Amino acid sequence: MTNWPAYEAGLKRRGDLTLWLDEAAIAEWQAPRRTTPGGQAWYSDAAIELVLVLRGFNPASIMAVGGLPSREAAEHWLLQLTLLLPLLILVSAAIDLVRHRRDEQPLSLETARTIITAAIAIILAIRLSREDSYFVVGLTLSTVLGARLLAATGQSATRVWRFVQPLLAVSTLVVTGVAIAGYVAAWDLLKPSEAGELAPTFHQLLTTPPIDALQPASRARSTQPAEWLANDGDARLLLALRYMHDCTRDGDHIFVTGSTPYQVGYYTQRPIAGGHLEWHQGWLSDPVHERQSLMLLQRQPVPFAFSTHDPVLDDLRAYPDIRRYFQDNYEPLEGTGGLLLVDRRRHATGRFGAVDFPCFR
């Protein structure tokens, strides 16, 4: 570095925003004269909306210390890459497909697999695009697909593609590396204050069965009824997971619903009843599929129906027959607000802890 003054001036300008306004916007900055009763406004609606947008702009949300993207920006970049990489591979596979048809050659099995995998990755990325942090689900598959960009182009590839492919590979690799660096730099586990959380986290990940680390049996069974009723939603969820794990037998299923119900089967170590767990979203709620799901529920042993958020029966409004089935044969467990239903047709073989819930082992 030889020109330190210019370098320091550049650092001071980081985060500056130059705003250019159209003359038409300036002309409409003041509110038009009011022709109805009431006070006269000073500024137009467009001016107010612009100021509100600028007030919400935070340069720190885009670039963090050291020139790396902030965690929020990195998550957004990585989520976009989960869609971009399979799209690029799909374009590459489409070029191969056109070339094979032009040369009257059969489609190779590798190209067919690539097209199917890329399509699945695109659908997954689109479904998860509602929240940036969901990139962790699809990034691995997209990265595996993106690795094809690093492979050497075949002899039959067009001259344009031989130039474009390495350019795409290098650019996506750089963007991915920068985004990952920004995400990791802002990772909470790397902060000194969080160092004490590493050991408990790994302990919870490696404990078998997983419920022993999440909610030890001694703690759950010693919970008193008054304490159970006074607990918040998270504490009740932990105890409910322990209860369903301990009070079901091999072969039992658990009916699971809620906006994020995916951890229930993992901690209870019981299969999901009814064929799926997207009841909250109204998936397969047409009469034909509802009838099939109901027949499956009637065949399966299902001692419990559990929801992670809204009451079970509320999630089943799109399934009138299944909802009626649970209303006729299940009853809510005390203190759960309808989040946990118990099959009243079953005879309890024991009781669970101080809360005295029925067990069906």
List keywords for this structure.
four-stranded mixed sheet; 361 residues; 3 domains; two-stranded antiparallel ribbon; mainly alpha
Can you put this structure into words, describing what you see?
The chain is mainly α. It has 3 domains: 22-57, no CATH class; 71-185; 211-359, no CATH class. Helices cover 52% and strands 6% of the residues. The protein contains 16 helices and 6 strands. The chain has helices at residues 4-12, 23-27, 45-56, 71-102, 109-127, 135-146, 159-185, 198-206, 211-214, 217-221, 225-230, 233-246, 264-268, 287-299, 312-315, 320-329; strands at 254-257, 304-307, 330-332, 340-343, 350-352, 357-359. The strands form 2 sheets. Strands 1-2-4-3 form a 4-stranded mixed sheet. Helix 4 packs antiparallel against helix 7. The chain is extended. The mean pLDDT is 81.
In terms of topology, how is this protein built?
Elements: H1 4-12, H2 23-27, H3 45-56, H4 71-102, H5 109-127, H6 135-146, H7 159-185, H8 198-206, H9 211-214, H10 217-221, H11 225-230, H12 233-246, E1 254-257, H13 264-268, H14 287-299, E2 304-307, H15 312-315, H16 320-329, E3 330-332, E4 340-343, E5 350-352, E6 357-359
Parallel strand pairs: 1-2
Antiparallel strand pairs: 2-4, 3-4, 5-6
Helix pairs in contact: 4-5, 4-6, 4-7, 5-6
Instruction: Report strand order across the widest sheet.
Output: 1-2-4-3
- Backbone structural class: mainly alpha
Give the helix tally.
16
Per DSSP E runs of 2 or more residues, the count of β-strands stands at 6
Q: What does the radius of gyration come to? A: 29 Å
Helicity, as a percent range: 40-55%
- Helix-strand string: HHHHHHHHHHHHEHHEHHEEEE
Mean pLDDT: 81
Number of domains: 3
Overall, the morphology is: extended
Strand content: 5-15%
Distance N to C terminus = 73 Å
Low-confidence stretches: none
Largest sheet: 4 strands, mixed
